[in-house]
């Protein structure tokens, strides 16, 4: 069933000057079924995915101790505030806004509906690309532990990772169906974070000297700092909060705020532990994939890399779910999600989507650059610029002058940061593309 969505009395724009946006309430996925703690684990799975093994190198090395620690804590506080704003807009217009694009379309109109949709899927596509790179790196790290002959190259590992991610996607019809897999994901995260933490601690205690200087020339340091700031934003945000909130039981806003506080308090502790310990142990020489820096028994490092690989397969499904929801709703057929026709549909459609992801991952396997580019192009606009501006527009008549000024300051400030970070990220990709050939084995 389709309906016409318009801004209500609390909207700030004149409905007569803006065409209504036709959106569908229908979805092939489940709505209002999950308790807040399950959603909290979905969010925590995202921030404690294998990406955390790269933050020592991609955030701490360019920023140093003061910049890195303050940056991570400040980014967490700002991100929590922005996500709470989005969560509180979930019932604008008297109905649940189950998609980010529906929320933007309700407040702004069709042009922003389309632009938000484009930004979101660029964001999620690039996050998924990064996950496949991570999974490929884990597989290669396992191989190198036993045979360092160069026969199994990173592009081959990425291809294997893409196949495994696709097989998992075929069997999990929607986000709510992850349930028990979220438990496995938490366990896998615990395994590789604890191992990376303990081995880094041991290496740090045995090391005589560590260099914490920020390596780079003047201009390189400026661009690497900007890239690290984009990575700070990337670390905490999903770019798909309304889609995740759609699965939570009523009262949706209250329960989502519980899940967000869980994410940014208890959920953030593992991220801090492994990021700070990795940088303390190895300083400016920290690898972009921490498990490549640690020393220890081969079997222990193997377990850590296997856990990293498996957790990445699960986490990718979370960030691919909005694309799956769109495709399943628009082109899929009804009935049981495990009916043969629906399984074949998922094989064809999701398999095709992940094939494109895998090809790009193998073509340009520069993980840190993807994190910076994703943060700049989509995470900044979606999580900070739009969150503040949408909240401002939806509550214009209710907000005091100081609060309006605060939200406008956020809009302008984060818009400027997004532009600067995008320029820096494109430069990083360009430089690395010259340093490494396509399908590089790095």
UniProtKB/TrEMBL annotation:
Segments passing through the bilayer = 65-91, 112-133, 153-173, 180-201, 221-239, 260-282, 302-322, 343-364, 370-394, 406-429
Coiled-coil-forming residues are none
Q: Where is the composition biased (Basic and acidic residues)?
A: 10-20
Keywords (A to Z) from UniProt: Amino-acid transport, Membrane, Transmembrane, Transmembrane helix, Transport
What does the entry give for GO biological process? amino acid transport
Q: Where is it localised? A: Membrane
Provide the residue span(s) of the region labelled Disordered: 1-20
Q: State the source organism's domain of life.
A: Eukaryota
Gene Ontology cellular-component annotations: membrane
Please list the residue ranges annotated as the Amino acid transporter transmembrane domain. 35-424
The name on file for this protein is Putative proline transporter 2
């Amino acid at each position: 069933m389709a309906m016409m969505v318009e801004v209500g009395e609390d909207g700030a724009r004149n409905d007569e000057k803006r065409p209504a946006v036709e959106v569908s309430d229908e979805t092939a996925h489940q709505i209002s079924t999950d308790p807040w703690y399950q959603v909290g684990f979905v969010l925590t799975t995202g921030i404690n995915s294998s990406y955390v093994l790269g933050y020592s190198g991609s955030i701490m090395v360019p920023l140093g101790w003061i910049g890195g620690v303050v940056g991570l804590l400040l980014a967490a506080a700002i991100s929590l505030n922005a996500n709470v704003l989005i969560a509180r807009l979930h019932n604008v217009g008297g109905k649940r806004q189950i998609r980010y694009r529906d929320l933007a379309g309700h407040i702004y109109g069709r042009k922003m509906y389309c632009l938000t949709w484009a930004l979101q899927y660029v964001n999620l596509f690039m996050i998924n690309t990064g996950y496949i790179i991570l999974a490929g790196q884990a597989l290669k790290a396992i191989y190198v532990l036993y045979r360092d002959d160069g026969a199994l190259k990173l592009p081959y590992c990425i291809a294997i990772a893409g196949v495994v991610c696709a097989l998992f996607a075929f069997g999990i019809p929607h986000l709510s169906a992850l349930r028990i897999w979220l438990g496995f994901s938490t366990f896998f995260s615990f395994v590789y974070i604890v191992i990376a933490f303990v081995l880094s601690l041991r290496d740090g205690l045995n090391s005589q000297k560590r260099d914490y200087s920020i390596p780079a020339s003047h201009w390189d340091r400026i661009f690497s700092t900007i890239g690290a700031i984009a990575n700070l934003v990337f670390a905490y945000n999903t770019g798909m909060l309304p889609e995740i909130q759609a699965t939570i039981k009523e009262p949706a806003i209250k329960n989502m705020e519980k899940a967000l506080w869980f994410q940014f308090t208890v959920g953030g502790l593992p991220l801090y532990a492994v990021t700070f310990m990795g940088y303390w142990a190895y300083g400016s020489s920290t690898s972009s994939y921490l498990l490549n820096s640690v020393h220890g028994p081969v079997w222990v490092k193997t377990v850590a890399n296997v856990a990293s690989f498996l957790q990445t397969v699960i986490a990718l499904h979370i960030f691919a779910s909005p694309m799956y929801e769109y495709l399943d709703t628009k082109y899929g057929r009804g009935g049981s999600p495990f009916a043969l026709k629906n399984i074949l549909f998922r094989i064809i459609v999701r398999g095709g989507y992940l094939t494109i992801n895998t090809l790009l991952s193998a073509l340009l396997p520069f993980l840190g650059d993807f994190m910076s580019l994703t943060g700049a192009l989509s995470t900044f606009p979606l999580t900070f610029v739009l969150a503040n501006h949408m909240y401002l527009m939806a509550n214009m008549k209710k907000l005091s002058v100081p609060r309006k000024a605060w939200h406008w300051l956020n809009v302008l400030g984060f818009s400027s940061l997004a532009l600067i970070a995008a320029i820096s990220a494109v430069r990083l990709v360009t430089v690395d593309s010259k340093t490494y050939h396509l399908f590089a084995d790095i």
